[in-house]
Amino acid sequence: MIKIALAQLNYHIGNFEQNTRKIIDNIKRAKQQGADLVVFSELSICGYPSGDFLEFSDYIHKCDKALEQILPYCDTVAAIVGAPHRNLSGKGKPLFNAAFFLENQKVKHICHKGLLPNYDIFDEYRYFEPATSFHVTEFKGKRIAISICEDLWNLNDNPLYTGNPMEELAQQGAEIIINIAASPFSWDHRTERETMLTQNARKYGLPLFYVNQVGAQTEIVFDGGSMAINPKGEITEELSYFEEDFKIFQVDKIISQKGRIPEKGEDEKRKIEVIYQALILGIKDYFGKIGFKQAILGLSGGIDSAVTMAIAADALGAENVLGVLMPSAFSSDHSVEDAQKLAENLGCPFYKIPIKNTTDTFEAHLKPWFENLPFNVAEENIQARTRAVYLMALSNKFGHVLLNTSNKSEAAVGYGTLYGDMCGGLSVLGDVYKTDVFRLARYINKDKERIPVNSITKPPSAELRPDQKDSDSLPEYDILDPILFNYIELRKSPGELYQLGLDKEVVDRVLKMVNFCEYKRYQTPPVIRVSSKAFGMGRKMPIVARYLG
Amino acid sequence: MIKIALAQLNYHIGNFEQNTRKIIDNIKRAKQQGADLVVFSELSICGYPSGDFLEFSDYIHKCDKALEQILPYCDTVAAIVGAPHRNLSGKGKPLFNAAFFLENQKVKHICHKGLLPNYDIFDEYRYFEPATSFHVTEFKGKRIAISICEDLWNLNDNPLYTGNPMEELAQQGAEIIINIAASPFSWDHRTERETMLTQNARKYGLPLFYVNQVGAQTEIVFDGGSMAINPKGEITEELSYFEEDFKIFQVDKIISQKGRIPEKGEDEKRKIEVIYQALILGIKDYFGKIGFKQAILGLSGGIDSAVTMAIAADALGAENVLGVLMPSAFSSDHSVEDAQKLAENLGCPFYKIPIKNTTDTFEAHLKPWFENLPFNVAEENIQARTRAVYLMALSNKFGHVLLNTSNKSEAAVGYGTLYGDMCGGLSVLGDVYKTDVFRLARYINKDKERIPVNSITKPPSAELRPDQKDSDSLPEYDILDPILFNYIELRKSPGELYQLGLDKEVVDRVLKMVNFCEYKRYQTPPVIRVSSKAFGMGRKMPIVARYLG
């Protein structure tokens, strides 16, 4: 009658004091509530991903010290804790990604990860040596197969890997599967994850306990969703998504309990809702973990800044989100009205700073060189950059973090001003295509008009020259976004895009823009990742290349 | 009497047309000059590193097509060409990093790379499956051991790897070693590379032919330096550094020829000279490969912008480098004079735009909120950002690329204004510590005073407030730089730094600044890499972490 507690926690990378305290608190809690074993997520001691801090011997030393501090609390309750483990064999990378089994105040067993993900945002081969042999852990008369995240992602059909840790553990008579993970959120990933885990439970006919990290680490959101699965492959119990949680399960009960089977199509149904939740957590943790409370952003009256402000207000409190209206000579009256109405609807403070005097000053000083040359992107960008100077001045004076309001569609094609509207400490919508920004706006407005309807219904415009529309420079977003999705998320070739019925001339122009604008994206803020392929650390493109250009 | 040609070329990533033409031209050249075999560098077909383009099936298809175009030229001369090769086994990553041996217009043999580097700027496990078996290639009665770059970097003492391809090839009776590489430059790497290669030749008692890529790929500089080594482990012949080269060697002659042994200490001696050369190539190729000719930069009268301008003038031609002097209320007279003298000395055009009117306009509009608050970093940054707006306006109007002038010391501690002086398409000095910037300045002035001596001798200042000096905020650079070097390049812990005799309070403050400013560096331009650990793609640090903070 083993009782297993799952502790789904939000760790702060490198903050050993806080992480250790959280782990100890939850060991105590598990003990008080009569658990035999409490399980924490992958690399919980230091937080995932720790990046190149793992290359600092001192950092690993601090992980070891934290484990020592935790050990005394594992007396009548055992614990599984994730931490790096030094590879002392003298062969291979200097660390293993490990699960430490702590029992009777001792390290009873150390399990190493075998399948190291090294794609998209993952680069575990950079730090870790993969394990090549796997051993079950005996605990209270039961054989436990402890695996680490990706270790369960091979049902002998994953072309990425040649090994299969779980197969080996099953052959040793495993009776319970435990998987500790740091599995990042993307809107289309939940069903895939549930399917992989339930298939493992069913294949081996064993109960499975899964603990995922929760919380955002700059751009990566970990969504939690830890769970218990019965040997038929049904999800019997679940922990929360997007927040810390703690639950205790009786193994016998899980084995006999009925549950649900993951269903295809669920991801698509909840897409906008979970993107909204992920963005909230992304903002909350970015601010919380760097110790800032207040955000600032420019309000144009358009939909991107409106959605960004609404989400920021929900994450940080409306009073902590300052909007700045900065109309230029080309701003329409409705833009200013819509922006002001937005701030009022949400209850956010706002300032108004007209920028015409400032841009006039810039242009006057540039007259010796610009005279007689036509108004073009240079003058357009002066407006966007003047706004950035105002926003950053306020940010510097009062300690607000500037939120970037660019969406994924414009970031993709470079429709934005570097050091202008592309500024910010964090990009909220940088992984959300424009067509989904519209859906988010409607979701935010589902109970009442928080975002002025006019901001949603009017044609998108940067308003940097008279009567400008996005569609002057770009295909309509319902044509653009599918091209981008197929190229960025699905890595389709031009030929495959034509076959989808997309216009060749438009496809070629769009792909050329995407590749050419790599230099702009290189300098943009971290983007909260909500898709399977976000700009940033998970997409590594050369700048000086000439492919499809 | 085999004759081997080494073709050390500068490839453009993804530019299949140009790369293929270069390869074909050099096959023809080898044939005309009577070579039996011509060898090209690692992944020469597509250029190295191709990044996530390798995830596009279409990109690999284009590599295959290029190989088909090359084949007909390999009639009386054979060729070794680097290209990705699809892994059709259904197990492991979808590609191999391969060397194609082309003979009699056919692909005679394909060798796969076994040791995949996955550290610093390398992430080959992201794309490639490592080979686990290796086979010599028979050519004109000789057994040739073809290896790819890192494959020779294990003399059974490299802890990173468990395998040793060359050992296996030697056991098959190899008679000649050929290594095709894409080995990046850093100022302290040449001797290490020469030592590794000569030790291989000596250990196996075989002649070794090494072909490296040359040319810069955004931030990474490949320095060439291809060579032939005799079986005693002496370098008998060398190709140029930092430029394309082509040479033919008679294998028998190389075997009997005397050569030199790599000497420790050489790297330190030539450090400043090779950094200068690498920066020249870095600028040249960045501009050349994106198709731009002209650069712009802000001139402060200080040493960083002076050194940047001198190097840019040497790379692009003085007439193509535009300096802009933008004195503020806090600029000293000598700053303007020094900047003007610099441009005149170098023969570069320069514009002068005083910024006081513009910053006054910003401050006037901010008065409702800033009134009665002390002048601080907000007002300082307005000056730096105003300058960036002017520079980018000129860049946008006339098509100049803005060069960033930040040095590595200030980038490390965040002593710079985001969206201000941290702007630019390319950072020239971002991997050069301030103390080395001084050395570079003296090197540039070795024949005559190109950089005004006053710019070198006066105390560094950002001049953003009255009588400001860098040393108001930072330790002196001869104290700061060793701390940074030990922490960044050598990954030493605070404890180890104290043991070097560095002041604890200073060390703690500096390391805290370095870690805290990750958010700034995230948004800075690509940095030309000249050290073993540059900011950018080779150093992956989380932003929201709290380590040593």
The main sheet of chain A comes to: 6 strands, mixed
- Work out the strand percent of chain A: 15-25%
What structural class is derived from the secondary structure elements of chain A? alpha/beta
Number of strands of chain A: 19
The chain pair with the largest interface is: A-B, 98 and 98 residues
Find the CATH superfamily of the largest domain in chain A.
Carbon-nitrogen hydrolase
Secondary structure elements and their pairing?
The structure is a homodimer of 549-residue chains.
Chain A: E1 3-8, H1 16-32, E2 37-39, H2 57-70, E3 78-86, E4 95-103, E5 106-112, E6 137-139, E7 142-148, H3 165-171, E8 176-181, H4 190-204, E9 208-212, E10 214-217, E11 220-223, E12 227-229, E13 235-238, E14 245-250, H5 251-256, H6 266-290, E15 295-299, H7 303-316, E16 321-325, H8 333-346, E17 350-352, H9 356-370, H10 377-398, E18 401-404, H11 408-413, E19 426-427, H12 434-444, H13 453-457, H14 470-473, H15 477-488, H16 494-499, H17 504-516, H18 518-522
Parallel strand pairs in A: 1-2, 2-3, 7-8, 8-9, 15-16, 15-18, 16-17, 18-19
Antiparallel strand pairs in A: 1-14, 3-4, 4-5, 6-7, 9-12, 10-11, 12-13
Helix pairs in contact in A: 1-2, 6-7, 6-12, 7-8, 7-12, 9-10, 15-17
Explain this structure.
Chain A is α/β, with parallel strands linked by helices. Chain A has two domains: 3-260, Carbon-nitrogen hydrolase (Nitrilase/N-carbamoyl-D-aminoacid amidohydrolase); 272-522, HUPs (Rossmann fold, 3-Layer(aba) Sandwich). Helices cover 38% and strands 17% of the residues of chain A. The first copy, chain A, has 18 helices and 19 strands. In chain A, strands 5-4-3-2-1-14 form a six-stranded mixed sheet. A six-stranded mixed sheet of chain A has the order 6-7-8-9-12-13. Chain A has a five-stranded parallel sheet with strand order 17-16-15-18-19, sandwiched between helices. In chain A, helix 1 (16-32) runs parallel beside helix 2 (57-70) and helix 7 crosses helix 12 (434-444). Chain A is elongated, with a radius of gyration of 26 Å. The model of chain A has no long low-confidence stretch (mean pLDDT 96). Chains A and B meet through helix 2, helix 6, helix 9, helix 10 and helix 16 of A and helix 2, helix 6, helix 9, helix 10 and helix 16 of B.
